[in-house]
Request: fold
Amino acid sequence: MKLIFQLLLTAIVVLVLAEVLPGVGVDTFTTSVIVAVVLALLNVLVKPILVFLTLPATLVTFGLFLLVINAVIILLVDYLISGFTVDGFWWALLFSFLLTLAQSVLFKLTERK
Reply:
């Protein structure tokens, strides 16, 4: 149940960020739910591989290269889902940063003690 709630929160954040950022677009709420699911799957399946392959760059930049990996994941979601568009790498970087920030705040606020 917690996973479904987090996916719905992520879908809402994706929809809001698509309205706020001019370089990001989402067609419908259903598309934003699909984006949230695909993003979660890619974060579980692809991101650990990318982190492992880019470990030297991540260590040299003190972890800042993880922002680049997040942007690449967002661009991959853009490629996979037709109703979700990101205009370029910098928009993907900003979108991933704001999405992570919003998720951190919302998940912390909704966490049970």
Remarks:
- Strands lie at 24-26, 84-86.
